[in-house]
Amino acid sequence: MDTTDQYIKMCEKATEIKGVWDIKCGDYVVVDKYKDRRLALITERTSQDFAIVAFPYASPPNRDMHRIENMIPLPRQDQLQEMREGLEINSHVPYKQLLSVCEWLCQQGLPPLRPMSMEMIWLAFVMHTKYNKAWDGENWISSE
């Protein structure tokens, strides 16, 4: 699971993703209430607006309730793949998923010697194919 500053920034700026995010137990989030932005794991959804999160890297580890609007979702690769449903490929056929991403990467040109996680690649793919946006290193911009 990618928890790098770059991926968090990409997720924070991907407001379209947050708009369709269905929060569930086990989802990774960054709680944006704190100055240092804490990585957390959803342990329970208590209402439409609140969830209990665990801070596994806090010392000592603890749990707390937070407003969902103060959370930045960090989608896993499987969650990003599910967001592709309804598009031109069957998102439940792994070979077709991989082929579609590879074709897209070749069209875009491979990233210039910069490490990218599979989550970053899939987020960029979803943002491009569903919302026609591309990451410029700071923001998602319209690629029309």
Q: Could you please describe the fold and organization of this structure?
A:
The chain has 144 residues and is α+β, with helices and mostly antiparallel strands. The chain folds into two domains: 22-74, Roll (SH3 type barrels); 77-142, no CATH class. The chain has five helices and seven strands; from the N terminus they run H-H-E-E-E-E-E-H-H-H-E-E. The protein has helices at 5-13, 15-20, 77-82, 94-108, 118-131, and strands spanning 28-31, 38-45, 50-55, 62-67, 71-74, 133-135, 140-142. The strands form two sheets. Strands 4-3-2-1-5 form a five-stranded antiparallel sheet, with helices on one face. It has a two-stranded antiparallel sheet with strand order 6-7. A hairpin with a 4-residue loop joins strand 2 and strand 3 (50-55). The protein is elongated. The mean pLDDT is 82.
Query: From the alpha-carbon coordinates, what is the Rg to the nearest angstrom?
Result: 16 Å
Number of strands: 7
Low-confidence stretches: none
How does the helix and strand content classify structurally? alpha+beta
Biggest pleated sheet:
5 strands, antiparallel
Number of domains: 2
Give the averaged pLDDT, no decimals: 82
Put simply, the count of helices is: 5
Order of helices and strands: HHEEEEEHHHEE
* Distance between the amino and carboxyl termini: 31 Å
Spatial strand arrangement across the major sheet:
4-3-2-1-5
What is the percent of helical residues? 25-40%
- The coarse silhouette is elongated
Beta-strand content: 15-25%
